[in-house]
Amino acid sequence: MTMLSAVLAAGDTVSTTLGVVQTVLEYLGTVAFAVSGAFAAGRKQMDLVGVVVLGSAVAVGGGTVRDLLLGELPVFWVTEPTFLLVGAATALAVVPLARTRTLDLLQRLRIIEVSDAAGMALFVVIGTNVAIDSGADGVSAAVVGVVAGVGGGVIRDVLANRLPEVLSNAQFYATAALVGAAAYLGLLQPDVPAEVAFWVPIVIILAIRLLALRLGWGMPTFTVPDGREPRNRS
């Protein structure tokens, strides 16, 4: 084998490995988001149909909004329904598991939050990349990436009749997504290896998000004291 052949083979191996890891993380993120949606359904005492609908909507919501913004039709889960099926099956599985200590253990270890953060980070990077491939400029691509990462959670909260957590929990969530999307755009240079451009933004988003959960970091909140709302003087 020549030196050139060895280099090309190594590149193919890296690309294949990266693709496998990306697919695994996509499904893990789908599962984590579906669990989040099922929990929200349980808190609102929805029936099994509501559990499936909410879990599935959260699982594929961000990617759906991404594709709609970019005019990519049909949306991804129409041609790849496995993601939708995984979301629905996961949401249903939460119902019997909720009666055991399994989910309590996962919550104590923050496994669900870590998986959610990892899924969000991955969807941000993928969403930004899809937007660039569709011809969007840097700013628009970053916004699409953030929407892809946080869109499922927004859909969950709207369907559960709650103020979207991404706007109200005073933690670095959308901010982490935006920083990661910007980092990804900055690393899209010819001399930067594809695996570096892919993984570094994910690590950045995870680090910001997990530190925010651990240390309580977040954006300052805005509160208008009662009785001080602006009056209509017309």
UniProtKB/TrEMBL annotation:
Its main location: membrane. It is found in: Cell membrane. The chain crosses the membrane at residues 20-41, 48-69, 81-99, 111-132, 138-159, 171-190, 196-213. Residues 24-97, 114-187 form the Glycine transporter domain. It comes from the Bacteria. It is a multi-pass membrane protein. Keywords: Cell membrane, Membrane, Transmembrane, Transmembrane helix. InterPro entries: Gly_transporter. Belongs to the UPF0126 family. This is Trimeric intracellular cation channel family protein. The lineage of its organism: Bacteria, Bacillati, Actinomycetota, Actinomycetes, Micrococcales.
